[in-house]
User: Fold this.
Amino acid sequence: MEAAAGALSPVLRKLGELLAGEYNLAKRVKKGVQSLRTELEMIHAVLREVGKVPLDQLQEPVRIWAGKVRDLSCDMEDAVDDFLVRVDEGPSSKPTNMRNRVKKFLKKTTKLFGNGKALHQISSAIKEAEDLATELVGLRKKYELDMRSTSNGATIDPRVLALHKDVGELVGVDCTRDELIKTLICEDGSSKEQLKTISIVGVGGLGKTTLTKAVYEKIKAQFNRVAFVPVGQNPDIKKVFKDLLYELDNEKFSDIHNTTRDENLLIKQISDYLVDKRYLIVIDDIWEEEIWRFINCALYKNNLHSRVITTTRNVSVSEACLSSSDDMIHKMKPLSDEDSQILFHRRIFQSEEKCPEDLQAVSREILKKCGGVPLAIITIASLLVSNQRIKQKEEWMHVHSSMGRGVTEGGIAKDMKRILSLSYYDLPPHLKPCLLYLSIFPEDLEIKRDWLIWKWLAEGFIQCDKEETRLFEIGESYFNELMNRSLIQPAEINLDGTVVTCRIHDMVLDLICSLSNEENFVSILDNVQWHAPNLQRNYAKGSAV
Assistant:
């Protein structure tokens, strides 16, 4: 639903420019634009309310109507953009901004709208908008939705950065980390000189990558060469090999991503490079045994105490990673009740000892439903903090009841999707298209913050009511709010606490890809291309960011 509302926003903004008092529009043109804008504003308001209701609670006709609104919005924006091109005087040697282009266009709109074909198109649009508005206007009473105000002035909650800045200090990691380190670097006995592999296995959200990073950061100084390479669900194996080479030696292989070598040559190049190196290599998030077999061919089996760590959700993949009696599997376990409480309270109160007495009981009940899954705990905790202020007890009770049965041992993936969706439906309307937009990116990609904000701007997702406020600054507040809600995670953080790049947890990415497909916001055509009917362009998977 929110994709449709998001598609209307840029159209309303452009129609508002047409109606500005400084432009001398013909009377019939102004009346037509005003009528169209009024109808679209009504639809927009209703869709914003409907967007607060989970899709599975909406009737099919509502989804169909929203799809019509979305298609109409895209067609209208294309028409307005086409008008801009048609009335342009031609190339100019002087640079111009969008506002000046719009003004130039608006001065000529009388002639343009005087064209019979254009008037017919607008009349049809008005009629369709009126029909849709009539059908949609009753939704507020039907669903009894409340209007809620939102704030655009978000800054990043320091508690979020604290959770990610020092991976070695994360809750529940230290003991397991130390056990794995002891296993990896123990060298008593000749067999310990051989290549050793540890495979960490567990469902999504349990913290496999977090634990692995904690181990990696602690021991990497003891090795000649190190690499941490994510794989993901549908990997390009040549890119994985190139990433591995670049991680091992970014000076020697600085141009590796611009080469056209095949898999066999890349495997030989990696193996030859590792032959005399004591290396530590992490292969993160492997989904298929065949992918591991490819990668394993490149890892030279020297006797220099080299170590490999793999992570996977699949037990059969973890078993395939074992090739000697020294190799081992580590099965991830949920956090204990004590560690769950520490993580939950640290995210909300900055300390495990500051939970008010009136919230302690509901806090324990919420944690029971989180099932010790760190991603669930952090996501729900972020839902209970708004603009760095703790929500009221009534809202905690509402979140608890909305979690249903919570995370159960037999269906963690499905239960996690339901819990994560609570955060999506709690988003204010202007943030939902921004989050859905992230579905165009592949797994494990580090996305530059500023680049992402400019993309949101280009798509028309960022709205400004006050002329003196810069759109980019509003985009920064959008980014910060998504960060505060733990829907995106910081990847690279400057010394001053500024987030440079972000990433999306693969379970969150699974959710927003599913939502994007359901709302026809972005549809995955195959493992390489996306169809994005609501975006300005289509994207290729794995595009450089």
